[in-house]
Specification:
This protein has helices at residues 9-19, 23-42, 68-87, 92-115, 144-153, 174-179, 193-209; strands at 52-62, 120-130, 133-137, 141-142, 158-162, 170-171. The protein has 212 residues and is of the alpha/beta class.
C-alpha cells in the first residue's frame, strides 16, 4: 500500500518523533522487521521439490465506457491545454503529458468506442504457483477490493497480488467511479469496473486450475 497513509498523519509523525527517525528510516524499519520476522518463520517449513507452475496469458479487457459529456469536457480541456502550450512553450513537458495522455486519451478512446462499442485493451497477466502459495500479476494500480475478490476465491493457502507489472492505469470499482475521485475519472483509467471483474474472474480461474 501507499507508504504515506492519508489517514492518521499526525499519529504516524508522532511515532517517528518518538523513535527519533525520519520518514525514509521508518519505511526501512518496517521492511526490515517484516522480512526478518517472515524469514525466521519460514525456516520451519522447507521443501526440496515444491510444486512449480506458471501460466501467462493476454486478456482482452473491455475499454472503460465514456459518456458524451465526458468526451466534450475532455475535448475542451485538451483545447485549453494546447492554447496554454502555444502561449507558454516553457511549460511543454508537463502540459504535453496532460494534453496527450490525459485529455486527448479520453477523446481517442471515446472515438474508438463509437466505431466499436466492444473495443478492448490487451493486458498480460502471470500466475505462478509455488507449493501452496500463488503469485499473480497485473499492470494496474488496483483498488483494494479487486485484490480481496481474488484472494477470497483463490484455492491457494496464500495469494499474493503483484500489481503495476507493466504499463497500466488505475482500475476503479463501480462505487469509486460513481463517487468520481481522481483515480476513478476517465483520464486516470483505461479499464473500468466491467474490465476489473473480468480480470478478477480470469485470474481466479487460472489460479484454481493450478490446483487441479
Amino acid at each position: 500500500m501507499s507508504p504515506r497513509p492519508l489517514l492518521h498523519k499526525a499519529a504516524n509523525a508522532r511515532m517517528r518523533t518518538l523513535r527519533g527517525i525520519n520518514e525514509m528510516q521508518e519505511l526501512a524499519r518496517r521492511i526490515d522487521l517484516s522480512v526478518s520476522q517472515t524469514f525466521d518463520a519460514v525456516q520451519k517449513e522447507k521443501s526440496a521439490d515444491p510444486v512449480l507452475k506458471h501460466v501467462a496469458v493476454t486478456l482482452q479487457l473491455p475499454l472503460n465506457k465514456i459518456s458524451e459529456a465526458q468526451y466534450q469536457q475532455a475535448q475542451a480541456e485538451y483545447n485549453n491545454v494546447m492554447a496554454q502550450l502555444e502561449k507558454d512553450p516553457s511549460c511543454a513537458p508537463r502540459v504535453a503529458f496532460m494534453a496527450k495522455d490525459w485529455h486527448h486519451g479520453v477523446v481517442r478512446r471515446y472515438e474508438q468506442l463509437q466505431k466499436n462499442p466492444d473495443a478492448t485493451y490487451p493486458v498480460e497477466i502471470h500466475v505462478v504457483r509455488i507449493g501452496d502459495l500463488v503469485v499473480c500479476s497485473n499492470p494496474f494500480e488496483l483498488y483494494c477490493e479487486y485484490g480481496i475478490r481474488i484472494k477470497a476465491r483463490s484455492k491457494a493457502t496464500q495469494t499474493f497480488i503483484l500489481q503495476m507489472s507493466g504499463f497500466g492505469s488505475y482500475l476503479p470499482t463501480a462505487r469509486a467511479q460513481a463517487a468520481g475521485s481522481y483515480s476513478a475519472i476517465p483520464k486516470s483509467n483505461v479499464i473500468g469496473p466491467e474490465g476489473g471483474q473480468v480480470l478478477v474472474d480470469k485470474t481466479v480461474e487460472i489460479i484454481n486450475q493450478l490446483w487441479k
